[in-house]
Amino acid sequence: MKPRPIYTYGGRPARRNYTVADMIALKNQTWLCQTCSDTEEEAAACAAAGIDVLNTSDANISAVRAGAPELFTIADLPLTAHHTPDDILRAAVRAAEAGADAVYTPRSLRMVEMLAKEGLAVQGHLGLVPRLSTWRGGLRIVGKTAKEAIELAEDFRRLEDAGAYAAEVECVATEALEEIGPRSRLVTHSIGAGSGGDIIFMFLVDICGDSERPPGHARAFADLRSMRKKLDEERRRALRDFCQAVRDGSYPDAATSVPMLPNEPEKLREALDARPILNRRGDCHG
């Protein structure tokens, strides 16, 4: 989609590939691609590759916005970083002021409602919330039975009523999201919930094959982990060789050193011997 002009929550003119209104209008019509980014370099790579949506921690939003100035970007508000309602609201406003198009929180409906009432676009979390997995009996797929899927549909309704425009739907049985998603106004970001979502989300480390223990729903499209291992091995080899070269005197050598001009060393020695401006070797006092 051609980027269109907007004003950010912070009052700055900008351009975005998608707006919240676009995503709502595109619901049930097409799939968008989403991943996460922590740095300007990663964000720039995502933008160049054609990623549609990014998310990042609120602490990294400025760096990510610098790398991908036109990509729709969601700022995560980590559970352990902000505590009181005032803390959460301040963090959300700061992130929006820095260029976030939406804020994500897995917190209570009361927090979602508070943020939405301030005009912020809020994304909630449904299905499995890994940090709260103890309430689900551990890390598992949600909605494998009709009974649990109906309970999940109620969660959709409550989140929608609280004012969220979207939800990250994690580790949900495929058919459950396929049936519930179109019946909800929420824009659904599927991660481990099959192709029933409006936006398909996977972590950057999983996409690039850089995760030691990827989840079952991930598919690696590269093998950065092996490349990083080789890179680390080569780094260690280079450091060992450097140490050895210093110790055996082969580095620095003539190729990596700059000599004085011809005859100048002799002149220097004569001048130093005639005028001992430095302590002589072995004649230093502690």
Key features?
286 residues; alpha/beta; 10 strands
Overall morphology: elongated
Report how far the terminal alpha carbons are from each other. Answer: 73 Å
Write the element-wise H/E pattern from the N-terminal end onward. EEHEHEHEHEHEHEHEEHHH
Extended strand count: 10
Give the percentage of residues in beta strands.
15-25%
Class by SSE composition: alpha/beta
Mean pLDDT: 95
Radius of gyration: 28 Å
Please report the number of helical segments: 10
Strand order in space, largest sheet: 3-4-5-6-7-8-9-10
Please summarize what this structure is.
The protein has 286 residues and is α/β, with parallel strands linked by helices.
Notes on the structure:
This protein is α/β, with parallel strands linked by helices and 286 residues long. It is 38% helix and 16% strand. It has an eight-stranded parallel beta barrel with strand order 3-4-5-6-7-8-9-10, surrounded by five helices. The chain has a two-stranded antiparallel sheet with strand order 1-2. Helix 5 links the parallel strand 6 and strand 7. Helix 2 packs across helix 3. The longest helix is centred in the last third of the chain and has 25 residues. The protein is elongated, with a radius of gyration of 28 Å. 33% of the residues are buried.
